[in-house]
Amino acid sequence: MPDTSLRAQCCGILLGLFSLLVMPVVAQEHPLPEEGDFTIQAFAFDDGSVLDLTQHYTTIGTPQRDAEGRVNNAVLIMHGTTGSGSGFFSENFAGVLFGPGQLLDASRFFIILPDAIGHGQSSKPSDGLRATFPRYTYGDMVRAQYELLTEHLQVDHLRLVTGTSMGGMMSWVYGYTYPDFMDALLPLASLPVEIAGRNRMTRKMMIDAVTQDPAWQEGNYEEQPPGLKAAMYALVFMVSSPLQYQQMAPTRETSETLMDDLVERYRSRIDANDLIYAFDASRFYNPAPHLDKITAPLIAINSADDQVNPPELGILERETARIPGARAIVLPITEMTRGHGTHSRPSIWGPYLAGLLAATSVEVVPGPDMDLLVNPQDPAWDSIAPDHYRARFTTTEGAFTVQVERAWAPHGADRFYQLVKNGFYNGVHINRVVPGFIAQFGLSPEPRVTAAWKSAVITDDPVQAGNTPGRIAFAMTGPDTRSTQVYINLGDNSRLDADGFSPFGEVVEGMDVVNRLYGLYGENAGGGMRGGRQGLIEAGGADYLLEQYPLLDYIISAEIEVLAGPGSGLAL
Which stretches make up the PPIase cyclophilin-type domain (predicted)? Predict the structure, then answer.
């Protein structure tokens, strides 16, 4: 049974600035991670100190090189304050990004997760130097990681630089310090200006709570000073999510229990010296004077319920506008956002990452034959489907596979086969997602294609397989009106059987992906076919959906896999 206690619930909240939680390990669906250490001899810090510095790192996947010998698939992901690279191995992050068919599929990308100076298993004050450890800065962190990448891992170029919170701020620093080193930048939960106002005040509260405690003893304590607990009170509110906290703790008793639990959880997982160093490392951070040096395409994403970077400041939009072509995104508050910790929820912001990767790709991917797509009368649309086949869909949320049984609904199976085989669904938004009901798609991103297919209908099939969870059928508005739109049942919709909705297959892999498809727009992003709310999508296509409903997931590609041999079919 899932753990529904306050202790379990709070695990999902504070994955932001403060990343001390022991994250659940995601089910292994990507290559095995490899860990290592690189020691930089006599590393020179900004404060003038010199130290043999250890940089710990984790990698997933294998670097690939282009014809000129340059690495072309490396992705750098940087963690938040007090976190580590291993913190990304959560179901919410790695489970959504690193697996087969996902946006940062580790069989295609070389993913690098370093522990920053002062964090994880890299050199830090608590290793022995305590308060005599060099007073490192974000600039030191970035330079050390650059040496790790170029000197040790032999990575001479990055496909993508991204990071959460502190890692997001370091993404900005990478962008202007090494402007030709990456293809794209995706800073998450950060602002490209000096740490000031309430942000700096809260950091100083935490630092002062430790350093003004007599038990700190100038960093030479034998036991963690009580001031460390006081620092946690400020931290809890710094990265809080008012909506989530209210839902999790709607009474005085539950609120106090949640607070005590969070404070104790964090206090027990951090060293006082490491804490004050980590939060003070941002003291000289200020990309604003250097933004004109950033040349890589950039999308900066924050959340409107982020208490660290509140939207009313208007800073993200103002400063990002100074970079040609860059975009600033502030996600609206929803039941899916988690305040500052929204940065660790790629299920929400994945479509933006997909768009950035597509816009900066150097791969030449042949598009569908538009002449064919606008001509439903072409003989290519008359092909008969195999008795059993699979269609694999790669989406912005991950991949899922549909197995089709022609015997269930021959006309539907044939039409679906033709549409997938000829590239009709590539780029199609999954525009109608109603949790517990259906996920529907099939309106072309090109209005002229949608118009051409509006009357290209097929004859109905009798219902032989019921509308149970995971099964897929064509949408319709009445007898013999099935065209290109299909839906996947997200719940038991057996009541649809009597209305003639005839499933032709079912999802056999990736139903978890289907259940994660963005559904908070509900019927607003396309509505029901009978509701008459699809006219704007038909007229505007993908451009309209991207502008009005930017968080919708969409299909990157779909392809056919033919099954052969006895026993390859599904049972009714």
Answer: 398-517
